[in-house]
Amino acid sequence: MIALEDRQRTVQWVEAACREGARFKQACEVAGIDARTVQRWKTGDGLERGDGRPQAIRPTPAHALSAEERQRILEVANEPRFAELPPARIVPMLADEGTYIASESSFSRVLRAHGQVRHRGRAKAPQRRRPPSTHVATQPRQLWSWDLTFLASQVLGQWFYLYLILDVYSRKIVGFEVHETDSADHAVDLLRRTALSEGLHTLERKPVLHGDNGATIKATTVLAMLHWLGIKPSYSRPRVSDDNAFVEALFRTAKYRPQYPTSGFADLHAARSWASQFVTWYNHEHRHSGIRFVSPAQRHAGHDQEILARRHALYMQAREAHPRRWARHTRNWEPITTVTLNPERDSVVNAALQSENEAAAAA
Question: CA-to-CA distance for 208 and 216, rounded, in angstroms?
């Protein structure tokens, strides 16, 4: 789109070049404009009124959101419970309540038009090279991942340590503790309590527990406890710092929460109180993008399939009410059935699943 002043100036340059003996087409090419465009400007009122597209009156598309729908989007998005959430999490939460207003992209467009830009809030997964083996989970209590991270104290040089075990399939935090020291004894206690709370003694096949190569994770007492519990250990490859991506992403989510104190924790009690509140929020309130925006607790309990089926039915009803708003299919609410520790191509996942099925059949 060329402004009126630029049009007039360009035509003057072309006409001046033609008066000096230049050919009209070559003069337009030098000016960076098509010859037919200049002819159209001169035969019409393009050099007097300029481009008419900005002032053109276009009919409102039949499938566009109404003023009432746009207003409702603003009202809902600014409710206290949604004020800090991006549309990616607002829309699934509304669907669980049986309410469909508009799609995630429509929410984003309306909020952006009113100067309310909200980021998606999804942590970028670390880039990984292909691992030597792939652990696969098709249900909870098959694949765990654990690690510990530093929690800053208000005292310079003092730290607290958050020990955490994550169920990779459901993304639920199944065990955590906060201590003042980094000790293998704390890791052993966490393993024993988590195994008891998750009922591992009732499982025929115990989970695989993946961790990094830290001294605490690979301590002799920890290995002895894993052997006693029947849990198979798995470790990151040497000199590969991002092989434990699920827990690393979880720690990033924790430390970017608004409730995380940037100046550090006052004491151990404050650190434990924060950790307890974060785990409760993460397991029961947080809608995880990697599991179709259900909470980890819902997926861990096996409720995600029913929830996603209701969402699919709601979207089909919305499509029937406004078919022109849907170009093709509705949003994919199919449950994610397979989770791998280090996501790879489908052939790798299928091969791992086949080997597990053959081992189960042989047993």
Answer: 18
Both tokens of 264, joined, read 């550090």
The per-residue pLDDT for 224 is 97
Low-confidence ranges of the chain (pLDDT < 70): 119-134, 241, 343-363
Distance CA 363, CA 361 (A): 5
pTM of the model: 0.78
The angle subtended at Cα 239 by Cα 238 and Cα 240, nearest 5°, is: 90
**Strand 208-211 relative to strand 232-235: parallel, antiparallel, unpaired?**
parallel
How far CA 344 is from CA of 127, 138, 246, 348, in Å, comes to 12, 15, 14, 6
Q: So what's the pLDDT on residue 344?
A: 53
Please give the single-letter amino acid code of residue 350. N
Residue type, 23: R
Q: Tell me the backbone φ, ψ of residue 12, rounded to 5 degrees.
A: -60, -40
Alpha-carbon gap, residue 251 to 54, rounded angstroms: 49
Q: Are 152 and 159 within 8 A, CB to CB?
A: yes
SS3 for the chain is: CCCHHHHHHHHHHHHHHHHCCCCHHHHHHHHCCCHHHHHHHHHCCCCCCCCCCCCCCCCCCCCCCCHHHHHHHHHHHCCCCCCCCCHHHHHHHHHHCCCCCCCHHHHHHHHHHCCCCCCCCCCCCCCCCCCCCCCEECCCCCEEEEEEEEEEECCCCCEEEEEEEEECCCCCEEEEEEECCCCHHHHHHHHHHHHHHCCHHHCCCCCEEEECCCCCCCCHHHHHHHHHHCCEEEECCCCCCCCCHHHHHHHHHHHCCCCCCCCCECCHHHHHHHHHHHHHHHHHHCCEHHHCCECHHHHHCCCHHHHHHHHHHHHHHHHHHCHHHCCCCCCCCCCCCCEECCCCCHHHHHHHHHHHHHHHHHC
Q: Cα separation of 319 and 331, whole Å?
A: 11
Cα 157 → chain centroid: 34
